[in-house]
Amino acid sequence: MAAWREGEIGKRPVRIANCSGYCGDPAVEMYKQATLGDVDFITGDYLAEVNIAKNAEAFAAGQHPGYEPSAWEGLEMTIDVINEKRIKVALNGGALNPKGLAEKVAALVRQKGLSLTVAHISGDDLLPAVGRAMPTTRAAALPHLDASNPAVAPLPSAFAFLPDDGDADPSSPPQPARIVSANAYLGARGIAAAFRHGADIVVAGRVSDASPVVAAAWYWWGWAEEEYDALAGALVAGHLIECSAVRVSGIKGLPPPPTTKLAIFYKGGYEVQLLFNTAGYGWKEKCDLFEKQVRHFMGEEALRKLDFIEFQRIGVPAENPWDQNSSTMYIRIFAQSKDEDALLEISRTVGRISLKHFHGFHSSLDMRTATPRPYIAFYPATLPQSALTETAHLLDPATGATASSHPAGHPPRFEPLGPRDTYDTAAPAPPFAGPTRRVRLGDVALARSGDKGGNLNVGVFVREPRQWDWLRGFLSRERIFLKKFLGVGSL
């Protein structure tokens, strides 16, 4: 059999098609990518922060396969085309069980008599090493993702797993929170190693979103490990293939940092949300009164049993409402506690003040979300990359057993991340001197936001240079983060 893409690999641009941005994307997208164009690789990202944790207990109990079903369904319906067109595939839909998904795909390949080699990646699941118990002291905790960034202070809730010193009882030591999953973020090394050793389909667990694309490009071009600009370009391409369509140039790469992210999920306790409505005049005062009533009638002792309670105001009634709907907004009580009964006290309190409420108070009779339910909490930690044992395992096409294993190794060198720059525009454009009118910011600018590890990033951009001159003077850090838009307390 001729070598894969003989005469083409490394000589023309590589064609990589993404089929998934998260587990809810339809499985048929893989089939469409394979059939509607000529591609060399198909990649798929199936994991958000919480996928693995959400299914961890069910997988351990034998009630979930551990991998993302849509990844299997896509491969099942596309496998014949993958074989016919010799498309290579890399995806992280293996989630908790990349070996299980790889073995299932290999069995399908054998059943159909196809000529495909399947591999899986191990090394991201660090639960055996981390253990099942969250630490009970700050000193014993792994470094927080933001520990090295002096510009970011983690919220107190980031360490909610620590016992409350005020409730310490020497005769009854606190029970540590139970960890349900601990997965390190691997990169492209294992997938690239699998391709280099002959794999056609590579199933990974927790690798970072762009890693399948980086691995595909790395294998195609045969880059050296220290060709950082090329690898960085593939990283950016990986994010764009999955999420966007813009032109980016001038990409520069650096050696990787000495640490990687370790996503630890643990049982945080219980949570509730209660939704109520106010209609009519004076909605702000009504919200103030309702919160004051609930806090007063619950009492300080009951409130101290809550880890968190917030009275959120959702929506703003029309300035001159024409009916009840246009004069209505929501009050959302959101609360968390390790004590289930402490949360039930909120509903009991609302019941006790039901004839003391403000005019225009109403709600749905469906109060299911007022019943406490367990929730999974997240601690984003960092881990030395030297502690990883990332390995590519190729399965024997004839038996499905492991035929060979190939350690991915570690980068030849690391470079700590430098301090993040934080500044306002040094020389903002002077204020516009002509006539003005008030419009929504969205009429002038576009914006996107994202979140990683509990942090928010937001980018605001405009279409014309003259708008840019205005924007860079208008959007100071204080204006966008602290006052006008997000209302958060730190940068």
From TrEMBL:
Source superkingdom: Eukaryota
Short name of one Pfam family for this protein?
A: AtuA
Q: Where is this region: Disordered?
A: 398-421
Instruction: Show the InterPro entries listed in the entry.
Output: AtuA_N
Which residues are in the Acyclic terpene utilisation N-terminal domain? 14-245
Protein name per Swiss-Prot or TrEMBL: Putative duf1446 domain-containing protein
